[in-house]
Amino acid sequence: MTANTQSHSGSGPDIITFGETMALLMPSGGKGLEYSSELHSLFGGAESNVAIGISRLGGKVGWFGRLGKDPLGRMIFKKIRGEGVDVSRAELTAEAPTGLMMREVLMGKTSVYYYRKNSAASHMSAKHLDEAYIAGAKILHITGITPALSESCKEAAFEAIRMARKHGVKVSFDPNLRLKLWSIEDARPVLLELAKLSDIFLPGLDELKLLYQTEDWDVIVSKLRELSAISIVKGGENETYVVTSNSVTAVPYFKAEHVVDTVGAGDGFCAGFLVGVLKEYEYAEAVRIGNLVGSLIVQTEGDWEGAPTWEQVDAVLNDVKHIER
């Protein structure tokens, strides 16, 4: 089923993720889409953003999904591969086109327009999963975007988790609630069930308020403690929270010197955090790395382009000053 084979040194990836990646068109010069005659051709998708972030940080990571066998799909496939991500299980299909999104930032407000209905990715199903590939990983990372795309995508997400759990692979889950894709009433039972099946739950505080239908932090914490997962709550006022069965640890943010584009911050956080977990850091220290990666990504335009290398992260963590040569 694969579009291409890619040599992967040594064993397979330590972290595997899958989902829809779309082409992204953005106006140049900060203009609105309606008035721009030039568009930058980029791409983005929560799961591939995470995968690229992990690869930049030195992690062995694989991403798979379905792309159209069209110029946009080929562009995405080659660029993800070029970032050192294993795409040996990704597929280019003539059955449907690659999804497309268009984004504009006007007066500091970001608007996104999606053209993804019946995309190649929305036709993904459990039959496209490679159990041996998943079994060879240490962590399977999924998001709540995939099950929102179609019934077959939802089945694929649950089946991938079943495969991971069967083989002792940890499951990391970011709900990534997208109310343009489904209503909160449709999303809530699915996302809460996925959280129950996960080892690491990575929600945002605003998402938890919607999922648990409460603004009360104490109630949210008690709900999270009913899960078997470690919960990493993003989006606090000045910190990220690590919630376990018996403690809540607040990990302060890193200050971003100059915020350019906030898209991709959450995916960057997940990449940094998961690499920290791979390195067997304590959860709070892994969160610190995630916070740092997120703060660096928002200082560059694009979903993943600003993802740092491990050397850059390490330099900030150890307060190494940049030296002009």
Automatic annotation (TrEMBL):
Transmembrane segments: none annotated. The keyword Transit peptide does not apply. It comes from the Bacteria. The lineage of its organism: Bacteria, Bacillati, Bacillota, Bacilli, Bacillales. One of its GO terms (molecular function) is kinase activity. The keyword Lipid biosynthesis does not apply. Keywords: Kinase, Transferase. PANTHER family: 2-DEHYDRO-3-DEOXYGLUCONOKINASE_2-DEHYDRO-3-DEOXYGALACTONOKINASE, SUGAR KINASE. Residues 15-309 form the Carbohydrate kinase PfkB domain. Belongs to the carbohydrate kinase PfkB family. This is Sugar kinase.
